Amino acid sequence: MTFSIHGLAVARGIAIGRAVLVASSRVDVAHYFIRPEQVGAEIDRLRQARNAVVEEIKRLQHDLSKDAPPELGALLDVHLMLLEDQSLSSEVKHWIEERLYNAEWALSSQMEVIGRQFDEMEDAYLRERKADLEQVTERVLHFMKSGSSPVTRIRPNSRPQQELHLGDTMDVPLVLVAHDLSPADMLQFKQSVFTGFVTDVGGKTSHTAIVARSLGIPAVVGARTASQLIRQDDWIIIDGDAGVAIVDPSPIILAEYGFKQRQGDLERERLSRLRHTPSQTLDGQKIELLANIEMPEDAAAALQVGAVGVGLFRSEFLFMGQQGNLPNEDAQFEQYRRAVEGMQGMPVTIRTVDVGADKQLDEARHDAAHLNPALGLRAIRWSLADPAMFLTQLRAILRAAAHGRVNLLIPMLAHASEIHQTLALVEQAKQELQQQGAAYGDVLLGAMIEIPAAALSLKLFLKHFDFLSIGTNDLIQYTLAIDRADESVAHLYDPLHPAVLRLVADTIAEGARQGKSVSVCGEMAGDITMTRLLLGMGLRSFSMHPSQVLQVKQQILRADTGKLKVWAERVLAAEDPALLMNL
Length: 583
Ligand code: PEP
Ligand code: MG
Fold this sequence. Notes:
By secondary structure, this protein is α/β, with parallel strands linked by helices. The chain has three domains: about 5-20 and about 155-270, Phosphohistidine domain (Glucose Oxidase, domain 1, 3-Layer(bba) Sandwich), CATH 3.50.30.10; about 35-145, Orthogonal Bundle (Enzyme I, Chain A, domain 2), CATH 1.10.274.10; about 275-580, Phosphoenolpyruvate-binding domains (TIM Barrel, Alpha-Beta Barrel), CATH 3.20.20.60. Helices cover about 45% and strands about 15% of the residues. It binds phosphoenolpyruvate and magnesium ion. Phosphoenolpyruvate binds near residues 312, 471, 474 and 522.
């Protein structure tokens, strides 16, 4: 039966494919595709982990004291039965062999399938046995992750019933469905095969949505119960323009969306012809179009669409998913150099790490995070709290500057003291390189304007920095007190709020007055409904996902900044700017 699930539209276009569910386990599970020749080794890894957990439970059984309650021994028996269940392990093997999932993903996917079967059981006692299955699965997952399983906790349980028939879908388009995906997960999927994705949680400018947008595939986030309602292998249409996922579509609906998909392909094809067209308005204003990237290899996509540089390299993505082992100076330098060389002489703006909030490095640090991470130890605060780590990054960036044009961008500054400490550390990094006799280059220094306090202290910022980059994602979050990752307040996340527009406009105007470059690198820059307004406010430099560059260029080619300036002043003065946006 066809039904639709509504969420937030975060990446445009139509995707049609079979659902691949990424199970939400309490253990942080890595999800990636393996190569066919790795299947045997992956099944071995799983077997070894399972055997180790079996041994451990047997040891526990053996050590059970005589006066232990008799149920305890019985419970351990049941856990053993679950682990030794042949059909369970053969189904997990099936995920590895047929889908090429890594072992952890295969196991957690199977747990999800069986978990649903438990949920549907009539008998309440049996239904509750799902928890036991989760426990043993998590012990195995833990073992694969850390080489030991967690402290034993056991509760009464019984043996599950399961039967699963998987269709082999490696040759059909796949759509990813998950409760949540961390930005690190998304990066893993960047090289892979998905044609669209949908998640239960997330806001429009959550980092997961941002990475999805950078993949250029249709996506819906904040779809609340999607991962519960959609099943493995269901056919799904993702309508990334409307923010809807249509499950099990009828042939008529499929045909309609197939048509829309072809229209989209044609539109993209048409836009690609603008690649070499100079980015200039009708009244001759040159507009700089830059790319936002997460990895050095994204430079290719930036060149492909004719971006004239990188306006934001989110360097934290190099640090994520490393289980706390941060890349050393040489490893970072290599990555920055690759990005710089990849851009073939055009400038690359490398932002120092912005971890914290919804971009945690690993579980351990996450646990240490504060209750309100968006307001906590994030971005430059994190860097200044660990000067040795920050200096390592600064040295690596300065060394990369010997290989091409590099701008150094600092996120989330608010205080004069943070600016002074940062500048002192940049000087120190240069001196250290000089003492070592290492080659390094000059960089332009930039600050992100993404905290209202910074937007209200522009003179201070312009005194110390060569350029500014407005991070509208955070500027909106902090101006309106809306967690950008929380879908329950997504309706209040409003780029057109008069206070937000005022801060953006003042930053652009003050930069122009002082002859310093101001760019916007938040999602607003790639949103074609905002292009005219930003031009009218005087913005001449936009940085966005490569997939958005040509659409924005199309808007620019049709714009007249003289007329837009007059209109933008009216929008800025309006009580409800949204009402004037289509005039
Ligand atoms: C922003 O805040 O607008 C920005 C570009 O940085 P990030 O999205 O990485 O926080
Ligand atoms: Mg930001």
